[in-house]
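Okay, can you check this protein?
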Amino acid sequence: VGVTRYGALEYCKWLSGKTSKNFRLPSEAEWEYVARGAQNKWSYKYPGSDNLNEVAWNRDNSQETTHNVGQKKGVDIGTGIIYDMAGNAPEWCEDIWHASYDGAPKDGSAWVDENTTSWDTSSRVVRGGGWYGYDYHCGVHNRRSVSGFSGYHFTGIRLAHN
């Protein structure tokens, strides 16, 4: 937590260099697909459950701090369990912020403009709730726009690889 988007990109670059995998930030579509249990449908209000305290560290139970990952019920995606998507720390996505999904890529790739580089200064998408969040902030649907230069003490990363 506490990482800017640019710090997250540097970490992806470093980790990719240390392994044989290409690590990156997930697209917003990838993030939501996993949050929905690898199903393209509305199933739960929060990633993994309709009971927020079952799946998320949030304003009601966090004691105003992050917690070790994996202490709450996770999201079963069929090939494994993914933890802490509903709460604990919101996560950077690769997409540039757009207020609606009109014109979004249909293939699940990140929504960036053709002239955009990974270091573009545009506001980016952050998904997931945090330890400070109310129930609305932790829902599968919640998304927000954050400057890539912001390193809020509560923003974290979740990596994808291919």
Summary: The chain is about 20% helix and 15% strand.
